């Protein structure tokens, strides 16, 4: 079985859908509920931006070295998502500032529609990466070369940071995904792997 990137997309997809459901249930007449959804959005948007930057730096650069252009659509999608962040931020702020109840509700509805479209675009983007970019990376690079991408990350992470990462990711993954993560950590950082294993077994 080839080395695969993007297993964490299962978590990304779940996070997007969880926030969509939260916004759908939010009573936009109540600022406390809006603030709760806004805080979740701040966490999610920060994660998505960091995730995109990592992909551009670590994965797209590998394809550029081989003269491939398969990643260009995903790059454009990253830029489109960047443009959507301030729009969603603005709608949250407008809903909180607005004092007229009917207007608050309408802004909330527009926010829900905007975010739902954002989720749809993101899901198409994840599909693009896994069906186009991943096979291209596997075509150009060996498993040993692909493992070096994550190796640099595992060198930096402390054992506790590894545990925290797996605690977030594992609830969204099947046994094969979990085994792949653990195998990569064991190959990259055997001493850290031994340290985290007792806790990981509990996960």
Structure, explained:
- It is a single chain.
- This protein has helices spanning 9-25, 31-65, 72-97, 101-140, 143-156, 159-169, 175-188, 190-202.
- By secondary structure, it is mostly helical.
- α2 runs antiparallel to α3 (72-97).
- The two termini are 24 Å apart.
- The protein has eight helices and no strands.
- It is globular and about 60 Å long.
Strand percentage lies at: under 5%
Structural class: mainly alpha
Assembly state: single chain
> Percent of residues in helical segments?
over 70%
Rounded average pLDDT: 95
Order of helical and strand elements: HHHHHHHH
The end-to-end span amounts to 24 Å
Number of DSSP helices? Answer: 8
Uncertain runs: none
User: Mind telling me the C-alpha Rg?
Assistant: 19 Å
Number of strands: 0
Biggest pleated sheet: none
Q: Per the principal axes of the C-alpha atoms, what is the gross shape?
A: globular
């Amino acid at each position: 079985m080839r080395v695969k990137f993007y297993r964490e997309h299962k978590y990304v997809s779940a996070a997007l859908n969880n926030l969509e459901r939260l916004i759908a249930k939010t009573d936009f007449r109540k600022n406390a509920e809006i603030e709760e959804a806004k805080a979740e959005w701040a966490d999610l948007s920060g994660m998505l931006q960091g995730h995109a930057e990592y992909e551009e730096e670590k994965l797209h650069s590998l394809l550029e070295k081989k003269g491939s252009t398969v990643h260009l659509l995903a790059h454009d999608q990253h830029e489109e998502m960047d443009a959507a962040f301030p729009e969603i931020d603005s709608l949250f702020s407008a809903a909180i500032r607005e004092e007229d109840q009917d207007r608050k509700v309408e802004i909330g509805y527009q926010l829900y529609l905007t975010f739902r479209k954002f989720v749809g675009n993101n899901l198409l983007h994840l599909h693009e990466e896994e069906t186009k970019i991943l096979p291209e990376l596997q075509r150009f690079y060996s498993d040993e070369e692909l493992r070096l991408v994550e190796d640099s990350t595992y060198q930096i992470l402390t054992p506790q940071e590894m545990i925290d990462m797996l605690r977030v990711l594992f609830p969204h993954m099947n046994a094969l995904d979990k085994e792949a993560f653990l195998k990569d950590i064991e190959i990259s950082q055997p001493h850290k792997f031994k340290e985290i294993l007792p806790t990981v077994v509990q996960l």
